[in-house]
User: Fold these one by one.
Assistant:
Number 1:
Amino acid sequence: MTEHAGRVALVTGGSSGIGRGVAPELAEQGASVVVHGLVHDQAESVADEIRRFGRRAVATAGPIGLAQTSERAVELALDEFGGLDTLVTSAGIQWYGDVVETSAEGWAEVFDTNVTGVFLAAHYALPFIRMSATGSVVIVSSVQATASQAGVPAYAASKGALLALARAMAVDEGPHGVRVNSVSPGSVDTPMLRAAAARFTEDPDAIEKLVRNWGTAHPLGRVATPAEVGAVVSFLASPRASFVSGDDVRVDGGLLSRLAAALPEPDAGSR
């Protein structure tokens, strides 16, 4: 399949988690991909995997909250592939604790990565994406932008900010022919999710059980894989979604469709 043939994509956070599912998906669909990660060896590993199945990819690394990281990634896309059509922002971190427990430094760290990192990537990428005939930006947010669990105000607030940013960018970029959308995944089997489980137990079997248990909160009865989110991102970034902009697509297995109140099981005689 080649719906991204001839296109160039930059995926921030592409070396791990959801971004690790996005970058190979875009490449399989024909895109040349710049894989960004915090650690160069991890980003290079993903780029090497893409190259092994015959697609073009290069790696870059650095803290996404620093301007030079995004500037360097965009320059790499231009130098290696001659342009830029797609930006997918997937880099993100979690910080646990309520507002009292969250330090000012922790709050700033979450927003530097989750929000400022997206702004900086778009700031440097958009002048070139505007030159594309089918320019697109996809921002990875979270269901926690809409409904939050306990103890993650910094993360939830940052993800809510991304929904607002995506809408604002869609309005501004539309006249340039660039579409901007976001996706809001539910629980996804990523290192971040497993690190959350490890806060409660160090036993690998117990972590596995806890991840499966979290999956039962979703009507589909399981957590997502990064590749499942990557498939939706790929669609939104593709010409097939040519009139979709300013939207947020939930990839949550029905999580936000379910009311928390549980009905009792009916008696056998009432069935």
Number 2:
Amino acid sequence: MKMKKMTAALLASVMAFGFCGSTVQCEEQETAVENAGEEITITDMIGREVSVTPGSYERVVCVGAGALRMYSYIGDVNLLCGVEDIDNTTLEERPEMFDSVARPYVLAYEEVFSMLPSCGVGGPMAQAAEAEKILSCEPDIVISEFEDVEKEDALQEQLGVPVITLKAGSKGVFDEAFSGSMELLGVLFGEEERAEELIAYVEAEAAEITSRTADIAEEDKPAVYICGLGNWGTTDHLMTAENFVSLNIANVKNVLSGTGMEGIQPIEEEKFVELGEDMDIIIMDAAAVKNIIPLYQEDPTMFDTCKAWNNGEVYLEMAYNAYYTNFEIALCNSWFVAKTVYPELFEDVDMMEKTNEITNMFLGQELAEEIFACPSSFGGYQKIDTATFFGEN
């Protein structure tokens, strides 16, 4: 059959935040769609060329952190023929470290996942796919988030079916790697329109947040400290970032601006104390609260220098990272950040309604109540009463 190549990492949809690719790439994507049912060669998100037959797959396995989540946004979960133990909440023996945190794809499709055989343990300790368990599920395609070219090539050779690797990117839901992964899934499963719809929605949401806040004068911007970022369960009030996408999109002043930090990392306690008097607002990721509470109870003076703490300007956003990025929650958090910092500009935004809207777009279900009911959500987006929340005496 005639072979055609497209570059999935830059599949084009004209996006204001760098999601767009070239006209040539748009034409290549259209060619792939036109040839649905024919074998083509795609380039997955880590640069591997793989022969696939778009629209032909009926037995799907997803392995690695985030793979099943991303597939759930685009693909039909009824095509799944296996699931990692971490995503089957009915199993007695399985990784449970994320069970108290909202993972919307699990909330949406928990019943479907519970009926499927195991394709591996999954979870942060699983550093490689389990080929034998995957083979026992008899998939005709594997969607993976193990971003290692040699391992993915070896797994594909063992399984004898296409192994397609996705990627998220450091900017999460706003990263072109995320949009590229959605486009790639759309091509593989004949869901191009669905992929385009989701990408366009994310782009429009980001653009609206930015446009609402574009005219705020620098001197009128409160200084925000966002913390508890990074890997769920391993972070606290010192884990933060200077260049954090949700703050950037909402034109929010980061108290760390100018420090030269790269990525998400902890600051020293001395730096936290030094910056405390400049912190107008603190936003904490809910996943870190379980670590911050005992630290505070051990040393109640840890926030004494922090203006936001003393003024009662401490807020809770939902955990955006649990078995990799909760993309829909990351988008919800961006709205919450903007509403928290600029309440007058976002007075019309109700976080329960916005969360339902976003989860409905991503997963076809309104999940706000279930997300907020998870133990580590502490009831949902809120301004924290520190005296009761952190157990002050």
Number 3:
Amino acid sequence: MTSCILLALKRLASLSVLGVLFWNLGFLLQSSHIPAGGASTRDKPLSILIWDLPFNHNLNLSGHICATGRHHKEGCLLTSNRSWLDQADVVAFHHRELQRNRSRLPRAKKKPGQNWVWVSLESPTNTKDLAGWNGTFNWVMTYRQDSDIFIPYGVLVPHLSDKVDIPKKSHLVCWVISNYHRTQKRAELYRELSRHIKIDVYGKASKKPLCPACLLPTISQYKFYLAFENSIHQDYITEKLWRNALLAGTIPVVMGPPRANYEQLIPGEAFIHVEDFGSMQELATFLLTMNDSHYQSFFSWRHRYTVKLYDNWQERFCTICDRYPSLLCGKVYPSLEDWFQNERSGLPGGP
């Protein structure tokens, strides 16, 4: 029995002379749920329909995918077969495909208690056409920590190690960039910093494209990596930090949300923030004059943690299975645009 039914019982409790009976029954049902990370007591698997596969990726959603491989979530089924619309418990809509094929959205929910999830990993700056979805979605699934279903680009997981191996360094600073626009903040900072220090630039926007298998081995040769986000938003901390820098074994020089926001996810001594310096000349001097002992200290976190990337869409969608028992059924976002564009006032370092 799902949390939707629990909510209904609680509402009945406030209206009926049998309120105490209903409340106690609801409490007993709630106590029968396994906490997040396991499956709830259900007669059949939780079914999740992926309306459009993100970026047309072939996810090979064959049966109980969340109970196999590295997902290990029993009682949860993913499918992209739209004929399941009338029986799916949850329907997930990835925004990129949604905004391109708006007419293909189902007219209404086909099953009582069915919940619709809006999914996106893009920042508000790069997300368009939100105004037309008022009152459409029950839950949001994004990189924001205040999402109903939080899907970060990466996390640090506990991992004790006596020895930390740092890749051998032969170069100083590099940047990998696919889409370069001169008006972006990151482009402005790069131009200013490059006046004071040599920066090797790779990627589609440069004359040095990298094959996927070449990315990490190339970056690992550098002491510092410019993990500059394409836009600055609450919690918008992408693979530029997690994969390109931390996983590659180099020190990230970050440009994105304030330092305090980064420190909610990684230790403060694991990165350098551009806002720690009064100018790009000061930052360049800091990078050029750092001694070996100071450099090694930026890797102390690796004695306690290791990097886990969330770059697999199967795994991301299986996160719904974990969160489902604790999600509020019947909730609706009156304005998706208001929620996504108006970030929380408590953004670290903000007003």
Number 4:
Amino acid sequence: MNIEFATEADIDYISERDKHLARTLIPTKIMAGEIYILRDSNQAIGWMRFNYFWDNTPFMNLIWIDEPYRGQGLGKDVVLHWEEQMKERGFQVVMTSTQSNEEAQHFYRKLGYVDVGCLLQEKDPLEILLSKKL
């Protein structure tokens, strides 16, 4: 498995699966180097995208692994890869979030993330904010 920056060739793959990001924003995020693609034998099998919380703290927005590849540690691999990249860029802290009814909160805590706050929006489960010192 390889982890690399997404390219314009990945737009359709991401757009078909990412229901939280408008297709028109994908090229901008690709050009900014804010989407990693996971590949197995040159075939896209997942991605991770991020942005910056408060414009200064790397914030992981979403990890997606195609169903046949789940449960193999690829999510952990891409998170650790991203963390290392952010550390190399001089960041000391990274963040992410997950809803309180999602299992992802346990995944992030196992990777060393700690709860730092929450957000409650009408009609949505509690959003847990998590942070990790690099």
